[in-house]
Each structure stands twice: as C-alpha cells, then as structure tokens.
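User: My advisor asked me to double-check a structure prediction for Amidophosphoribosyltransferase before group meeting. I don't want to rely on an old file, so could you generate it fresh from this sequence?
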Amino acid sequence: CGVFGMIGVVDAANFVALGLHALQHRGQEAGGIVSYAPEHGFNSARRFGYVRDNFTKHSLMETLPGQLAIGHVRYSTAGSKGAAIRDVQPFFGEFSMGGAAIAHNGNITNADALRRELIERGSIFQSSSDSECIIHLMARSLQRDIPSRMEDALRRVEGAFSVVAMTRTKLIGVRDALGVRPLVLGKVGDGWCLSSETCALDIIGAEYVREIEPGEMVVITEQGVESTRPFRAKSSRFCIFEHVYFSRPDSIIGGRSVYETRRQIGVELAREAAVDADLVCPVPDSGTPAAIGFAHESGIPYGMGIIRNQYMGRTFIEPTEQIRNMGVRLKLNVNRALIRGKRVILVDDSVVRGTTSRKIKEMILDAGAAEVHFRIASPPTAWPCFYGVDTPRREKLLAATMSEDEMREHLGVDSLKFISLDGLYRAAGEAEGRNNACPQYCDACFSGEYPVEPADMIEKGFKL
Ligand code: 5GP
Ligand code: SF4
Ligand code: MG
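Assistant: Sure, here is a fresh prediction for Amidophosphoribosyltransferase from the sequence you gave:
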C-alpha cells in the first residue's frame, strides 16, 4: 500500500490526491482521503479504482476541505480479497479528545489474536482489515492525547507498519522498530508532508527532508516537527524487495536511488550468470533497469523484445488468479521483428508462481527466438511475505517446491539463473554482501528468516 499526508497548505486533499497518484504502483484496488477543516470537521471519501479516476473530480474534491489531510492507496494483503468499500482506508475513530484517522502500510502479524481479544472486550469492527485493530486499541488506551494513544496501540502490534495519521491539528507518522516499510518526510512552502516514497514528493514540488527512522514517531503541527522514539530500537530490517520491485525506480531509499540499485543487480547478475546470447531483453517494466545493467556489463545489445501496453496495471496486484492469468497477454506483446532467430536473455525481477515467465517464454518462442535464457533480479522466492507484500501461500511458490533445475524444466527455457542473496545485497550498497549474523535487510521471502515471528500464521499451521 501507499500512504501520504499533508499539513499546512490550502486544500491539503488536492496535494494528497497528487501524492497518492504518484504512489499508485503501491496499490491499485482502491484509494481514500480524509481531511479536516475547523468549520467542516472531518470528511472522508473512499473509492475503488485509480486515484486519477476519482480524486480529480471537482465535485468530490470540494467535499474534502481543509489544511490537513491523509490518504491511502490499497493493495490487499490481509483481510478479505476482492473488495468491500469498508476495507478501504483511512480508518476513522472518534475519541473523547476528538477524532483521528489512520492510514497503514504493512501487515500486522498478530492481528487475528488482537481482533479476537478486542471483540471479546466489546469492540465493534467495521472492516476485515488488520489495520482497524489500531483504532480499537487506541480507543481502549487511557492516555490523554491521541499521539500517546497511538503509541499505546502500536506497542501491542507486531509486524510491519508505516502509519500516517491525523487529528484536528496534527499530522503523525510512525514506523515500526525494524522499519520494514518506508516513510519519508517532505516540506513544501509552510507545509509538511509524509509519504511512502520520495517520488510522491517530486510530484507536488516538495523538498525531501529525511526518512522517518525505524521506531520513530513524528508529530507535526503548524509549529513544526516533534520526534520521539516510543519503540525499542532494534537494528533495522528494511524490506529488500522494495529495492527489487515494489518502490518506483525514481524514488530514493536510504540515500540510494532505486533505479541505480536495480541496474546494479543486472551488473551483478551478468557477472554471476553470464551466457552467450544476441540480445538482452527486459520483461517490462519491472525488469528494465536490471536488463540495462546486464547488457552494459555483458556487452550484449539491449533491445525491447517485449512491448508493454501502458494502459494495464501491474498483473500481480490484480487480486484473482484468473485475471492474473489473462493479464500477461493483455499487458505484454512480443516484438517479433527483433526476436526472430535470436538467442534471447530475458531479465525479470522475480519468479513467484511462474505463470508470467511461462507465458512469456511461449510468446518469445512463438516469435521465432533461437534460445531463451531467464535471468532473475531476485533470489528464488521460496517463502511468503507476512509484512505487506501479497505473495501467495507457500505451496504456490514455484521455488518452494522445485529446485532451480526443476524450475528451468518447468518453465521450458534453455537456462534459468537467479541473483544470489549476497549479489543482491552488494547491489543494494552493502559492499561485503549479507551479514548473516545480523542481516541488514528483511529478506524472509528469499531466506525464510523472518525478523518478526508471524504469530497468526503459525497459529494457522504455518511452519517456519
Ligand atoms: P509470477 O507470474 O511468477 O507469479 O509473478 C512474477 C511477476 O509478478 C514478476 O514479473 C513481477 O514483476 C510481478 N510482481 C508483481 N507484484 C509482485 C509482488 O508483490 N511480489 C513478487 N514477487 N512479484 C510481483
Ligand atoms: Fe520484503 Fe520479502 Fe521481507 Fe516481505 S518478506 S518484507 S517482501 S523482504
Ligand atoms: Mg514483472
């Protein structure tokens, strides 16, 4: 998901809409905005579909007045699939000291247990979303102000959270102690904003100030930014898959360009898994920077052998398997004139179920390629993510049930190689590779080493 908040500008909701539009790649199912103006109170709008199709309409935007607003774009991980508008964030609660709205990116790993406890004690849930627990935990807190109630609530929550919240006068940002999901602070004129990624600062002309740190809470008013560290400091475990796929390539994470990391993954891959061929071709768009790096390092020409229809969304994020299956053809087509007779290296970011790779291989062979070699910009995805990326159950992950050789066979390609974990860490700027005693990132979907025990899943029978 993507979160964005803005304080201290006229019609803050318009800024939020633009920010969410720049974060659309983080969630395409639905979006929502809550705003506050003293004379109008809190207002909210939640809609299915793209930001640009909803939050551009004057008739809707004029219902969201005020100098303070937050918003969310949704990509469902926990909670019901397919959709109910009641699951669309931000969530809102009325407390004795006033209202508050929250927007959450991440996934709460003890949400089932919390929900059971809260329902037993009288909470009435409105949605099936894990994030709603935060509002109910806040309602039960005895603290006198909303930021302290949020602290209380988030201390009971396990897993990954980057939260943007608002009261009548404050914009609040929090990251979990491991800093699994991103959150950055920006400044525009007299106003401040919080965003999942820096690409959303660029769109509103905001200046990048800094990242919210793991375990940090910032409370922003018209007077400025106040920072506290309510959560126990641990060494950070940012999601390495943000670098590989999730974030936009024009965003900066930890002072590092996402594009540059992806390009460097291609360089590392070309060193680790060289092969004689005529053409390096990305699976667009997610494989493009790595393919550029691969071509550069190997000296093999780069070409657009697959053309993407720009009017389709990301296939993976379409919620049902059936739509996902059709998606590949709706979205990608082979550039036959370029492919015919060539030995082609295809570079993609990841293999999850293997459906994308299989279809693409067929399309490339149909177009008359002489050989097809897959090079993948992440290690084999053998474990599900429980921290906010929607990987399927373990049985559906190709790499969970097959060796690399079996995967090559299954995909029917001439060769298949994945970048090593160390190669990925080097590409992300860790010259010494992965520190196995204390990994610098979360890489659980590749290594099976979960930095936070996924309590709900273990209760449901998941085996580490
Ligand atoms: P597959 O067809 O192997 O199940 O999916 C792999 C494709 O899905 C890749 O091309 C990748 O770009 C895309 N993808 C989109 N979202 C995600 C995600 O959340 N996780 C992973 N691993 N891949 C994703
Ligand atoms: Fe990111 Fe993978 Fe960790 Fe999930 S399991 S947070 S996708 S690195
Ligand atoms: Mg892709």
